[in-house]
Specification:
heterodimer, A: alpha/beta, Rossmann fold, 10-stranded mixed sheet, 12 helices, disordered N terminus, B: mainly alpha, MetI-like fold, 2 domains, 3-stranded antiparallel sheet, 3 strands, flat
Chain lengths: 302, 314
């Protein structure tokens, strides 16, 4: 328990303003609105003492960290460390699993999204998700993208919908490859194209945040590179939280990294996910403060 | 060390790899007897179809075709109006589907998408018990309860048997079939598609209607076709509650009593010598059977196609 408190303290010591100028400086060059962000990036998610249970099994214990606006936040760690579980808390996706329960604070733009008055559907309209395996609907490419705008009532006219579809596919760098076959089944696309389609589908509802659950784990290296490039391009408009098994990927693309591990809960004899350290990605990979993080990122463990 | 090992050159040969002759004989025997059981069931099916065709053929050749398109089904008077039976069968099947379609599909959606695992584990066996109720019990229920309480009080029809009472009874009988096959088809839709839909801000009903149902449409169609073919072939309920005993005048009103194809056959086949009537009465039974067989066989073929499509989808 002492180590939990230590790592929590280590995370809280992290001062976002130290590095904010560098990030914002880059942003100003790319988008005009960055100036309004001020010197310190706004927080999007504030997580404090988050516990997640599946029935009586505690999957994650006491996670505390903050996700900042227009950054890519990576969550890394060995299997069973609860990183996907935490990711699925951000858009209340765990609600779909019977018996899943969340304790602690999880604020989205200062709104506690686990407040009983909050409708998870409204949360998910603002927080998009891309899954581990590409999961296009067995519908046409067009209908896949148009699904979200249709069900959320965003697009009233056919012309608006066409514009959203084109814009979203452009966003996901897929438009040129599919513009001549929008009516074809999405299942005919390659794995990498399907995953970019899923990203396009997620951005079509104009979310604030994109959650990505190991989005490249089912893809070959070339497709992976394309997705990573894409993430760099769209992070100016979206806040991205990504779970990855691939440490190099986290090092390449993310601004901040959260390292999770699984510890044995001696009282219940169960494995429980634990956030060990959260910091700027450079710090996590070059100068981590926790020995477990160092062992993991240098390949001595996990 | 070396003498504990078999010398590969000296001992290892084709001879040493030969099968034990007793084992080989046993294998052959098992294979042949299993093959024989398969052959027997194929032969029996062929025999049934042959007997159906040969008697029906006699009817087709010898019957005066004017009597096959007449005022009703009076086989003992030589009037074999097949449309009376077909129309009654279609009415009963149609009513059955109006009952079983929404109820079965609704139950399937609830079980697959809404029920918590514990509730589902309780409800599904109960539904399957309904499928195990003997049709003679349901026939009695249709005649004694549906006819007076539904047909008479709601539709102002007869309190005794009618096509409507029989149709509702058959509908109740096919609810579990529709629910069970539909639920299997919907459960086969990958969870990832539901998550994708929820992740885009779709409500549960939206996910169900716009993702799960379209993705399982071939399985659902198969469920309905199997149910239609079951309803067409159902005999006891329509015989007991259909409101006609041995003969029927042509009608297309569900509130009248009439004979379906199956009920017409059952009434002819009752008892040992009852079938032997005038002229082609006996053969007419096979002719009706053939028409029914062609219809259900065709439906099963179509259903098979759809089931194959659902298997290929994901």
């Amino acid at each position: 328990m002492e180590t939990v408190a230590d790592s929590t303290r280590a995370m809280l010591v992290d001062k976002p303003e130290q590095d904010a100028s560098a990030t914002v400086g880059l942003d100003i060059g790319l988008i005009g609105q960055a100036a309004s962000l001020g010197p310190e990036p706004d927080s999007v998610f504030e997580v404090e003492n988050l516990d997640v249970y599946y029935g009586s099994f505690r999957a994650v214990q006491g996670a505390t960290f903050t996700v900042y606006k227009h950054e890519i936040t990576a969550m890394i760690g060995p299997s069973g460390c609860g990183k996907t579980t935490v990711l699925r808390c951000f858009n209340r996706m765990n609600d779909l699993i019977p018996g899943a329960r969340v304790e602690g604070r999880l604020d989205f733009h200062s709104v506690p999204i686990y407040d009983p008055r909050v409708d998870p559907v409204e949360v998910r309209r603002r927080i998009g998700m891309v899954f581990q395996k590409p999961n296009p609907f067995p519908k046409s490419i067009y209908d896949n993208i148009a699904f979200g705008p249709r069900v959320t009532g965003m697009a009233k006219k056919k012309g608006d919908l066409d514009a959203i579809v084109e814009q979203s596919l452009n966003r996901a760098a897929l438009w040129d490859e599919v513009k001549d076959r929008l009516k074809d089944s999405a299942l005919g696309l390659s794995g990498g194209q399907q995953q970019r389609l899923c990203i396009a589908r997620a951005v079509a509802v104009d979310p604030d945040v994109l959650l990505m659950d190991e989005p490249c784990s089912a893809l070959d290296p070339i497709a992976t590179t394309r997705i990573e490039d894409l993430m760099q391009e769209i992070k100016n408009d979206y806040t991205i939280v990504i779970v990855t098994h691939n440490m190099q990927q986290a090092a390449r693309i993310s601004n901040r990294t959260a390292f999770f591990t699984a510890q044995i809960d001696s009282t219940a004899d169960q494995r429980c996910g634990l956030l060990v350290e959260y910091d700027r990605t450079e710090t996590i990979f070059s100068n981590p403060s926790d020995e477990r993080t160092e062992n993991y990122v240098t390949g001595r463990f996990g | 060390m070396s003498d504990t090992r078999v010398d590969p050159v000296g001992e290892f040969s084709v001879e040493s790899l030969k099968a034990n002759p007793r084992q080989a004989r046993k294998e052959r025997l098992i294979r042949d007897s299993l093959g024989a059981t398969a052959l027997v069931s194929v032969l029996i099916s062929a025999l049934i179809i042959w007997s159906l065709f040969s008697e029906a053929w006699t009817f087709i050749i010898e019957v005066d075709w004017g009597s096959v398109w007449d005022i009703g089904w009076f086989p003992r008077r030589g009037i074999y109006d097949i449309k009376t039976l077909i129309v009654a069968s279609l009415i009963v099947t149609g009513i059955a589907m109006i009952v079983a379609g929404p109820l079965g599909l609704g139950a399937a959606i609830f079980l697959s998408e809404y029920a918590r695992p514990g509730l589902r584990r309780t409800l599904k066996p109960i539904l399957e018990i309904l499928a195990g109720i003997p049709s003679v019990v349901l026939g009695f229920f249709a005649l004694e309860w549906i006819a007076p309480n539904v047909v008479k009080s709601i539709f102002a029809g007869p309190a005794a048997g009618s096509l409507l009472a029989a149709g509702i009874g058959v509908g109740v009988l096919t609810i579990p079939l529709v629910a069970s096959i539909s639920e299997d088809a919907m459960k086969a839709v990958p969870m990832a598609l539901r998550e994708a839909s929820s992740g885009l801000g779709a409500r549960k009903i939206t996910t169900t209607v716009r993702v799960v149902l379209p993705a399982s449409v071939s399985g659902l169609t198969a469920a309905f076709i199997v149910a239609i073919s079951r309803a067409l072939g159902e005999t006891m309920v329509v015989f007991m509650a259909g409101g006609a005993a041995q003969t029927a005048t042509y009608t297309h009103s569900a509130l009248d009593g009439s004979l379906t194809m199956t009920a017409g056959m059952a009434s002819l086949a009752r008892g040992t010598d009852a079938v032997v009537g005038e002229g082609l009465t006996f053969q007419s039974l096979f002719f009706v059977g053939l028409v029914l067989f062609v219809m259900t066989f065709g439906l099963n073929l179509v259903a098979d196609r759809f089931v194959h499509r659902v298997r290929e989808q994901y």
